[in-house]
Design brief:
The structure is a homotrimer of 264-residue chains. By secondary structure, chain A is α+β, with helices and mostly antiparallel strands. Chain A contains 4 helices and 18 strands. Chain A has a 9-stranded antiparallel sheet. In chain A, α3 packs antiparallel against α4. At the A-B interface, α3 and β13 of A face α2 and β9 of B.
Chain lengths: 264, 264, 264
């Protein structure tokens, strides 16, 4: 599978990726993927890294890219690996935010070396064949009718409000009223949050409505950094696209969450 | 039951209570009642709100009042409702301390609407008939012989000290020595705390002694705001009255805790 | 056993120890012993206190001394007691860091009185015969070939790194390379930390290697104050000595941890 390897003086012939970046960036990248998955695909190419996975019930998929610009130094040759996100997260968690983390993939031994100053970890990589693969393509494929850009704080508030009363929430766009509404109906209690353009960063109205499981959104919410703008792509009984940038634009994540069939 | 309703232009005929207050005040009010109860009676009248409950074993009752002065705006007509304190607490916990919370009781649908900016919750109220009722009257009925006013810090210290060695503690007033003593005798270890007038805000000596369960006092202690003065009314084998003000005097709570029969 | 008692005007004839010290010092002393034991021997003599214990599997022993200089006032006559560290810790935890704690042992009632301002605890002491005894002597008896002095931060880093991949870690000194290496080999992942003299406070090189259980080291690490210099005495398949001072040099602890038989 690995035909091309990183060429450099002190590089072994079997190194397909070598990069150095600050601890804050790699921690965030791993957290964003670990929000919904324990293990994922890791794609290397000369432009950067990509982490991707889909859950067993095919309800949620995530696509995380980290461009070479997010690295202090980066060399990559096309490779496809599997990674245990929990182990990876444990290791990078030991670094201080402003320390540098050096990563290196050895394609032959299928290991990822993680160096943090004098510390060196060797993590066994997983066979990507054993990890469920999302289909290629993004939310563009779904032709989502409307969209909203909200602050991370507004997204957080919506999800936490819904969590209190129900296991599901409804995202609704109303073209006539020009509002984005979040609604959750519990067995005894209800909650609604009605946001107009002035409460949002951006609103492209349409008439859409879809119901989602709160659990996945709560996990995605917990991994979201404060202060970012979150793009939500919405349709009627279509997947929800949740997209934001991190690491000063060097990182990007898109989650696609499948709708639940509405009870009404 | 509801003969009178709040009259106002934009008020529905079935609204018996409408009030706006800061999140810190309503959070504190709910916490103070939730310290000992999961659900309680909610009485509305033109002067304010009252929360009251007694536990199944009739060991502890609480009476929490929140005067109309504690609200930014307040309109109330006599009503009697039941409320799930845990749900109410979850909802108000989402507000920031300095946000305003708007409350409204709909007597017909038996719901409490809670509005925090764009967020609107609708909580189902409980039938007050299903909630155990304390008898009317306060500690005045018990003719407690002595009293002490202590800082919340001193109360906290006494309860935490006793908790370490035993499930019971004794509050004792000694008229001759002019001291207030807290004692707990465990199976192997003992603790005592002897406080004279200079360690207290106020001391009205008498000769009294009663034994109480530490558990209830610990719960009451955890909900107590720092910095308040706590009035303790004491008798011999009489209930303990624990009373303090909160919300700049707009709120007031009295707990009555039944004594345990002393082992000696 | 108690032939001599502390002689002083307001001292009962059965007092063998009376001392006053700041809460921070006694809390630290107890934490350092409680790191590996629930109960321990308490030796009193005119020069200070000593806490000592060994675990049932004889893997780890601790020796904690607190010199009379660490006390504001100290009077001690030779005595040997047993103490429940968990109860002792609970009690001293209630004091603020800068409060004074007055301790007094009553040899007749076998109790330890702990006074923190108006609070007085009476803790039942244990019969030292019921507590496993370490043999006398320290690491000097083992003739450890090499030693390292590291910062608490470096020790913390080593242990936490090893914890992530394995239940065992290897400490190795290499005389030729003049390095101190920490290694842990897990089922799938490995970690190593290679430190030269410049990464350490002091390094006395030798050729040694021993394997230790990570659990004990993690407990010792958690109780270690930040900022101290930790002396490690090392041999090949010899016990590890971990030694540091606390309370401005008035306190001293030495742990001896038995090596595990290496799998290799």
């Amino acid at each position: 599978m690995v035909e091309q390897t990183v060429q450099e003086s002190n590089s072994s012939a079997t190194t397909t990726f070598r990069g150095v970046l600050d601890a804050g960036t790699i921690k965030r990248t791993v957290d964003v993927a670990y929000a919904v998955f324990d293990e994922c695909h890791l794609y290397v190419d000369p432009d950067g890294l990509r982490l991707a996975a889909i859950d067993a019930a095919t309800v949620v998929r995530a696509d995380v890219t980290l461009e070479r610009a997010a690295f202090e130094s980066f060399e990559g040759a096309p490779d496809h690996l599997g990674i245990d996100l929990e182990r990876f997260r444990d290791v990078v968690s030991i670094a201080d935010r402003d320390q540098f983390v050096a990563l290196e993939v050895n394609a032959e031994s299928r290991t990822l070396s993680i160096r943090i100053d004098e510390l060196e970890y060797t993590l066994a990589l997983l066979d990507p064949e054993t990890i469920r693969s999302p289909q290629e393509g993004s939310s563009d494929a779904f032709d989502l009718a409307g969209s909203v850009v909200a602050s991370a704080e507004t997204f957080d508030r919506s999800v936490r409000a819904a969590e209190m009363v129900s296991t599901h929430l409804e995202f609704e766009l109303d073209a006539a009223d020009e509002v984005f509404a979040v609604r959750a109906d519990g067995d005894t209690d209800d909650v609604s949050l009605t946001l107009s353009a002035s409460d949002l960063v951006d609103l492209e109205p349409a008439d859409t409505s879809s119901l989602f499981s709160v659990d996945y959104l709560a996990s995605i919410n917990r991994a979201m950094p404060g202060g970012v703008d979150v793009g939500l792509g919405l349709g009627t009984e279509k997947p929800l696209s949740i997209r934001y940038e991190f690491a000063d634009g060097g990182g990007d994540v898109e989650y696609l969450v499948a709708p639940r069939i509405s009870a009404t």
